[in-house]
Description:
- This protein is of the alpha/beta class.
- The chain has four domains: 14-113, Rossmann fold (3-Layer(aba) Sandwich); 151-209, Helicase, Ruva Protein, domain 3; 219-332, Tetrapyrrole methylase, N-terminal domain (Cobalt-precorrin-4 Transmethylase, domain 1, 3-Layer(aba) Sandwich), CATH 3.40.1010.10; 335-456, Methyltransferase, Cobalt-precorrin-4 Transmethylase, Domain 2.
- The protein has 18 helices and 17 strands.
- It has helices spanning 22-33, 47-55, 83-95, 133-144, 151-160, 162-168, 172-183, 186-192, 196-209, 235-243, 255-258, 281-293, 312-321, 334-342, 371-374, 390-399, 429-432, 453-456, and strands at residues 14-18, 37-42, 59-62, 75-78, 100-102, 115-119, 122-126, 219-224, 246-250, 266-271, 297-302, 326-329, 354-359, 379-384, 407-412, 420-425, 442-446.
- The protein has a five-stranded parallel beta sheet, sandwiched between helices. A five-stranded parallel beta sheet has the order 10-9-11-8-12, with helices on both faces.
- Helix 12 packs across helix 13.
- The radius of gyration is 29 Å and the shape is flat.
- The two termini are 49 Å apart.
- The mean pLDDT is 91.
Amino acid sequence: MDFLPTFFDIKNQRCVVIGGGSIATRKASLLVEAQAQIHVVAPEICQPLEALVAKNKGTFKKGNYNDSDLDEAHLVIAATDDLAVNQAVSKAAQLRQIPVNVVDNPALCTFILPAIIDRSPVIVAVSSGGQSPVLARLIRGKLETMIPSAYGELASIVGSFRDQVKQKFSSINERRAFWESVLQGPIAELVFAGKNKQAEDLLSEQLKDHTQPKASVGEVYLVGGGPGDPDLLTFRALRLMQQADVVLYDRLVAPQIVDLCRRDAEKINVGKARDKHTVPQDDINALLIKLAKEGKRVCRLKGGDPFIFGRGGEEIDQLAEQGIPFQVVPGITAASGCASYAGIPLTHRDYSQSVRFVTGHLKDGAPDLDWKGLIQKRETLVFYMGLVGLEKICSSLISHGMKPDTPIALVEQGTTPEQRVTTATLASMSEDIKKIEVHPPTLIIVGEVVLLREKLNWFNQN
């Protein structure tokens, strides 16, 4: 081990930055985040650093570096492009036994600044020992996806109960077991869901009763899997998918996304192809309730967003009636994801000032819509699940007043490598698609914005 990982408490301590450019600004910003008093020394100072110093009541000496600038310093950072100055700063700091960092020169450093994941009071630092800062940043990026932002709040809540737990449990092993149950159970999930007061109340209750977390009832995670590209999943979606005991997924969820669920979780395909439901919706609702009452953590994984034509409201309505805890994780809905990957902006100042999402498949199987109400100037229409009813959609829009030459696009397998986009007009689309095979999931976009695709198409252009 080339460096000993450690953390400095520099709150209200004088920390000196030598240098006035952009790199010095980044380093000074870190010191400010750690609540240090910064003192900058440089012949010239850039505007962002000047503003940072003024905002945080630091000080600035305009001029060349002098060893006396390190008087009463608690920590020093040299961030100049002058090797001789950096060497002088390092030598003077080490003679005074002041920790010193010289940017991009590990040989002159007595400490190095790692890549940081900040979930204060939880801090995670990643270092390559100064050999490859870019690699350290890439590793940090991967860790960022695995550590919920609410971990800091969880740590604060835990910290506020430490003394009480010490009084309750005399044994270190007992305390460890108790905290492990808290940090991996329903209390932690309440914090991650933003329910801090409920988490504190439950922690108080368990501490008072000296009991383990109640596991008689599990929890349901209603997770939006997005339109197909796994990279579009949210951090929270991925975390809950990784900890669920059972996963109920729809046909439209990409296999690559299902594969990201916990490897040993039970996976149940509840299907829902048009008119060929693998599992009827009422049975899905009942299964969610049954599994949760068995104490299991259940991920209900849906394509797109659960609350946009995803029947999420129907499912959590039943869960709420049964008193089963649940979380809802939004996903990128098909309209947004598919339009973006097709190069079709849903709104544009020159073409469309509003957008309307419409289901092309109602409960009775027919697209029986308020066609007249859908005919609006400078508006984009997006039809979900409308492939089977495409001919009626086109003819009905035309018969109710939309121009036959209005552009229309079909986005098939949107956001995936298999994406295919077909453009035409309302008058010609029904005949055009008879010449090709189009398979769901397919999104229909109607409006002048479709004209922009030729210019703005960026994904899978070949």
